[in-house]
AAA ATPase (Halorubrum aidingense JCM 13560), 338 residues
Amino acid sequence: MFDDDHLPTSIVGRNRHMNEVTDALAPIEDGFRAENCFLFGPSGVGKTTVARAAVRELRQEVLDVPHAYVNCWQDYTRNAVLEQLARDLVGAALPRSSSTGRLIDLIKNNLHGPGVVILDEADQLRGTEVLYDLHDIRGLSWIGIANREVDLLADLDDRITSRISVAYRVHFDTYNDDTIAKILSRRARAGLGPNAVGEDVLARIARLSEGDARQAIAALRVGARMASREGLSAIPARLVEDAVANAEREVRQKTISKLNDHQRVLYEVLAEEDGLIQKELYARYEEAHPDPVTLRYLRENHLPKLEHYNLVDVEWDRGTKRYSLVGVDHSEHRSELA
Ligand SMILES: Nc1ncnc2c1ncn2[C@@H]1O[C@H](COP(=O)(O)OP(=O)(O)OP(=O)(O)O)[C@@H](O)[C@H]1O
Ligand SMILES: [Mg+2]
């Protein structure tokens, strides 16, 4: 119930977003290729959840619809994405390190009928050729998810933008406190029982979570754990602040564990010395990483990711950005990395 990838039975307060995505997918029910769609917005606002719930709805209509989920943060190369697709869409048993061409053929030859792919964290894709690949596979459509609207589509050159249409662009804004409280209330009832959390406590967690459902749910989980350690069956209001703070740390810790090697080096550099401007940060990163990306790539891809997940704070300082780690003090950061 409290796992981040738990898909709740009902999605609270996102009817319009759900409708847009199910509209995009609707052609599949009649045997046609769906429209591509692109979901974007800040962290913890239900993008991944809505995409998965829309595919779940589709599967209730079209039982054996080919579908795949790729987390491009982990699988960021063209081949990694295609391998995941070959596995999920056509159940291919892959020979080790198949070539790009072979992977595409495998999917093309074995995909029968229209299907859909969720490209989560699509702003982490190294290059956009894979979108051409998907486009060339008959019947295949995608739901792309990223933090900002520009991130995915900026890199596409004119050829691709004219060929690949993204018919639906769905913006997710942060939840208001009432919606967060409602999400929490359902989760609490389902996971902890009917009376484990009072309205006041839910409202308080909601207010402190600033529209981020992931933080809020984590705080609920941590609060329940703290209460049960004290032998209590309900979460008392006095524990809320600590629960929220501890949950923030837990979520941050989990995010750190997902960083790719470039982002990790950046994080480590900042843990060594906080408050670096972009140039300094890049210089240290370039020294520390065996195969560094360009400053531009770092600026447009990895640094925004760290910001999005609230791992670094950015401050404008005389026309340049200055980066520091969010939250706790330095010694603590070092132990987080250890
Ligand atoms: N409308 C909702 N109803 C119920 N649960 C929700 C809702 N929105 C989000 N959640 C829950 O909140 C958590 C975070 O949601 P989700 O993973 O969809 O966020 P996201 O927008 O994809 O964030 P990120 O950009 O960090 O990946 C998940 O555990 C999800 O189950
Ligand atoms: Mg997500």
